[in-house]
């Protein structure tokens, strides 16, 4: 089970891992452009999730959590581009891809729960609330 606080930490760690990967990328124009996109989307995942945790309504939570899902999915896209362009070996990104997939899955479940109304709005801000 993933808690709200656990997901906050996981999305922050994801952003930090993205920073390390992009800092270690080769100095090529294409790597710089794709790396910049990955850096922006990868670090936005946690920022949007934190904002979602501060939501004042179920609708606001859903909107901001969906932005976090979108950024995680964009990160997956940029990692696919880096791999398929031959700029980073798949082995170096495998764990980061897995992490992004997991974040998308958990956040999608959290949005589904919030939309269904099976969780009280105040519980969305409680760090111990289980979301899976």
Plain-language structure description:
There is one protein chain. This protein is mostly helical and 132 residues long. It has a single domain, classed as de novo design (two linked rop proteins) (Up-down Bundle). The protein has helices at 4-23, 29-53, 58-84, 90-116. Helix 2 (29-53) runs antiparallel to helix 3 (58-84).
Write the layout of secondary structure elements.
Layout: H1 4-23, H2 29-53, H3 58-84, H4 90-116
Helix pairs in contact: 1-2, 1-4, 2-3, 3-4
Relevant terms:
75% helix, mainly alpha, 132 residues, de novo design (two linked rop proteins), single chain
Short précis:
By secondary structure, the protein is mostly helical. Helix content is 75%, strand content 0%. Helix 1 packs antiparallel against helix 2, helix 1 packs antiparallel against helix 4 and helix 2 packs antiparallel against helix 3.
């Amino acid at each position: 089970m993933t808690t709200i606080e656990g997901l906050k930490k996981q999305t922050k760690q994801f952003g930090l891992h993205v920073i390390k990967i992009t800092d270690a990328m080769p100095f090529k124009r294409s790597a710089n452009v794709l790396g910049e996109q990955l850096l922006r989307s990868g670090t936005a995942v946690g920022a949007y999730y934190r904002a979602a945790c501060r939501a004042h309504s179920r609708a606001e939570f859903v909107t901001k959590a969906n932005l976090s899902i979108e950024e995680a999915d964009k990160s997956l896209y940029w990692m696919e581009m880096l791999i398929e362009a031959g700029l980073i070996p798949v082995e170096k990104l495998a764990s980061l891809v897995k992490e992004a997939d997991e974040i998308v899955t958990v956040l999608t479940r959290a949005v589904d729960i919030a939309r269904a109304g099976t969780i009280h709005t105040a519980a969305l801000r409680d760090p111990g609330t289980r979301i899976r």
